Amino acid sequence: MRFPLSLLALAGQVPLQDRFSPSTNTSTMRTKAFALKEGEAVFSPKDLIELTRPGEGVSNDAGDLVLVALSKYSLEHKK
Hints:
This protein has 2 helices and 2 strands; from the N terminus they run ααββ. It is of the alpha+beta class. Strand 1 (53-59) and strand 2 form a beta hairpin.
């Protein structure tokens, strides 16, 4: 079954909203000031920067051990 081209053009005009759901009024929504959270249970951007990063692994001649260099950046010491 082939669809007429005009029917396909009208199908592209359908809105993505559900017309039966209540719309939210943006003027009544409360806005909070944005602030980054810190603490023991929060993964912050600072924690991401200070994660330990493994380097390239180098194996010994026998191939049973691997030596991996680790690097870590500290925002406190800037190195």
